[in-house]
Write a structure and sequence with these properties.
Largest sheet: none
Structural class: mainly alpha
Radius of gyration: 31 Å
Strand content: under 5%
Order of helices and strands: HHH
Number of domains: 1
Number of helices: 3
Number of strands: 0
Mean pLDDT: 76
Low-confidence stretches: none
Length: about 120
Protein backbone atom coordinates (compact mmCIF):
# COMPACT_ATOMS: atom_id res chain seq x y z
CA UNK A 1 0.00 0.00 0.00
CA UNK A 2 2.75 2.46 0.91
CA UNK A 3 5.03 1.14 -1.80
CA UNK A 4 3.27 3.31 -4.38
CA UNK A 5 4.20 6.58 -2.58
CA UNK A 6 7.57 8.29 -2.77
CA UNK A 7 9.76 8.64 0.30
CA UNK A 8 9.04 12.40 0.36
CA UNK A 9 5.28 11.76 0.58
CA UNK A 10 5.76 9.16 3.31
CA UNK A 11 7.90 11.52 5.43
CA UNK A 12 5.47 14.40 4.87
CA UNK A 13 2.56 12.17 5.96
CA UNK A 14 4.40 11.10 9.14
CA UNK A 15 5.32 14.71 9.99
CA UNK A 16 1.74 15.87 9.36
CA UNK A 17 0.39 13.05 11.53
CA UNK A 18 2.80 13.95 14.35
CA UNK A 19 1.84 17.64 14.12
CA UNK A 20 -1.86 16.78 14.32
CA UNK A 21 -1.25 14.42 17.25
CA UNK A 22 0.83 17.02 19.13
CA UNK A 23 -1.79 19.70 18.51
CA UNK A 24 -4.50 17.39 19.87
CA UNK A 25 -2.43 16.63 22.95
CA UNK A 26 -1.82 20.36 23.50
CA UNK A 27 -5.53 21.15 23.28
CA UNK A 28 -6.31 18.33 25.69
CA UNK A 29 -3.68 19.64 28.12
CA UNK A 30 -5.15 23.16 27.96
CA UNK A 31 -8.62 21.80 28.70
CA UNK A 32 -7.31 19.81 31.68
CA UNK A 33 -5.39 22.84 32.99
CA UNK A 34 -8.62 24.86 32.92
CA UNK A 35 -10.34 22.15 34.98
CA UNK A 36 -7.44 22.14 37.45
CA UNK A 37 -7.57 25.94 37.70
CA UNK A 38 -11.32 25.82 38.38
CA UNK A 39 -10.71 23.29 41.15
CA UNK A 40 -7.97 25.46 42.62
CA UNK A 41 -10.24 28.50 42.67
CA UNK A 42 -12.97 26.42 44.35
CA UNK A 43 -10.56 25.24 47.04
CA UNK A 44 -9.20 28.75 47.59
CA UNK A 45 -12.58 30.44 47.86
CA UNK A 46 -14.69 27.78 49.60
CA UNK A 47 -12.49 25.33 51.50
CA UNK A 48 -9.51 27.25 52.86
CA UNK A 49 -11.48 29.84 54.87
CA UNK A 50 -13.46 27.04 56.51
CA UNK A 51 -10.31 25.12 57.38
CA UNK A 52 -8.73 28.31 58.73
CA UNK A 53 -11.78 28.96 60.92
CA UNK A 54 -11.71 25.40 62.25
CA UNK A 55 -8.01 25.72 63.02
CA UNK A 56 -8.60 28.99 64.86
CA UNK A 57 -11.42 27.44 66.86
CA UNK A 58 -9.17 24.50 67.76
CA UNK A 59 -6.43 26.90 68.84
CA UNK A 60 -8.96 28.80 70.93
CA UNK A 61 -10.04 25.62 72.69
CA UNK A 62 -6.42 24.70 73.40
CA UNK A 63 -5.73 28.18 74.76
CA UNK A 64 -8.82 28.05 76.94
CA UNK A 65 -7.83 24.64 78.30
CA UNK A 66 -4.35 25.92 79.11
CA UNK A 67 -5.69 29.03 80.83
CA UNK A 68 -8.19 27.12 82.94
CA UNK A 69 -6.03 24.07 83.58
CA UNK A 70 -8.52 21.67 81.99
CA UNK A 71 -5.81 19.90 80.03
CA UNK A 72 -4.44 18.06 83.08
CA UNK A 73 -7.06 15.91 84.85
CA UNK A 74 -4.76 15.40 87.83
CA UNK A 75 -5.02 18.98 89.08
CA UNK A 76 -8.75 19.18 89.68
CA UNK A 77 -8.54 20.89 93.12
CA UNK A 78 -6.04 23.45 91.80
CA UNK A 79 -8.18 23.99 88.73
CA UNK A 80 -11.27 24.69 90.81
CA UNK A 81 -9.31 27.07 93.02
CA UNK A 82 -7.87 28.84 89.97
CA UNK A 83 -11.33 29.42 88.55
CA UNK A 84 -12.53 30.80 91.87
CA UNK A 85 -9.56 33.19 92.01
CA UNK A 86 -9.82 34.53 88.43
CA UNK A 87 -13.48 34.72 87.38
CA UNK A 88 -13.03 38.15 85.79
CA UNK A 89 -10.21 36.84 83.60
CA UNK A 90 -12.38 33.99 82.41
CA UNK A 91 -15.22 36.37 81.59
CA UNK A 92 -12.86 38.54 79.56
CA UNK A 93 -11.48 35.46 77.84
CA UNK A 94 -15.00 34.31 76.93
CA UNK A 95 -15.87 37.75 75.55
CA UNK A 96 -12.70 37.88 73.45
CA UNK A 97 -13.32 34.36 72.17
CA UNK A 98 -16.94 35.20 71.28
CA UNK A 99 -15.82 38.33 69.42
CA UNK A 100 -13.17 36.37 67.50
CA UNK A 101 -15.72 33.70 66.63
CA UNK A 102 -18.17 36.30 65.30
CA UNK A 103 -15.37 37.78 63.18
CA UNK A 104 -14.42 34.33 61.87
CA UNK A 105 -17.99 33.45 61.03
CA UNK A 106 -18.32 36.75 59.20
CA UNK A 107 -15.22 35.86 57.19
CA UNK A 108 -16.66 32.44 56.50
CA UNK A 109 -20.01 33.89 55.43
CA UNK A 110 -18.30 36.33 53.08
CA UNK A 111 -16.15 33.65 51.49
CA UNK A 112 -19.04 31.26 50.98
CA UNK A 113 -21.34 33.95 49.66
CA UNK A 114 -24.18 32.97 51.97
CA UNK A 115 -25.33 33.78 55.44
CA UNK A 116 -23.97 31.87 58.43
CA UNK A 117 -26.07 32.18 61.58
CA UNK A 118 -24.21 34.15 64.24
CA UNK A 119 -25.36 34.14 67.87
CA UNK A 120 -24.79 37.45 69.61
Amino acid sequence: MLANFSIRAKIAAVVAFLLVAMTGMGLLAVRNMRAIDASTVDITTNWLPSVRVLGDLRAGVITYRKETGCGDPGNFPQRAAGRARHPAGLVQHHRRAARRQRDRLGLLAGSLGRAVPVRR
